[in-house]
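Before we proceed, please read the two lines closing this message. Let me know whether the structure tokens fit the sequence:

…
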Amino acid sequence: TLYGKSLYEDTKVIKVILARAENKMKELCLGSRGQITIGAGTIPGEYLLPSVLAEFLSGHPNVTISLISADSQSVFRLWQEGKIPVCVIGFLPQGVEDIHKIWSDEIIPVASPHVNFLLKLNSPLELCRYPLVFRHDGSASMAAVWQALKTAGVDVDECQVALKVTGNEALKNAVKAGTGIGFVSRRAVEKELSEGTLVHVPIEGLCIKRNFYALFNKKLEMPATAALKEHLLSQAQKSDRAVL
């Protein structure tokens, strides 16, 4: 009958829907499907994570990742509030259980090749003779610079801070324009250094190193997040060994 045929067709549709749902559930359990939000400081978010995430997604085509890039302090607050399950930041917070060092970094002073700066400063104290370009206060890289300068005996309040900016690209562009000496991750200026649009200004007695850390919220962990964690830790360590 017409009714029986309709019922048969409806049953076939339901079976297809149930099969699809079952497959999706299996994929979720295996970590091959899902949506992940990851927060990152500007250096890892702009220069390190994109290639690592692209490789992960090539093996997990049904996973969607939302990458939020901001200063490390803001990203860490989002992670603390339970709004994101994973974050990568440029400082070591206290009291965090699931935390892993994944990259090392060097922050270097750079200048425009068209500005008449010395090729090398004999002391960090000589920085006070030149205009400087700094990142804003929430930047983990800027915190590392301040700490290094303080350790070297430099009073930042006595320096000529000509400009403060909110991002690495703004800092690089300001330095290229001749505003002053800027401090930025070597990873962020590899292209500019090779092209000669920026030059490294070595400072005797000043070496600024820091690490990037990945934090995971176990309460928000899903199979896809666990798969990303495994990939991130393994690939990041390989990348770190290749760069350094």
Remarks:
- Residues 18 and 47 are 42 Å apart (CA to CA).
- The beta strands are 33-40, 62-69, 86-89, 99-111, 131-135, 160-165, 181-185, 199-200, 208-216.
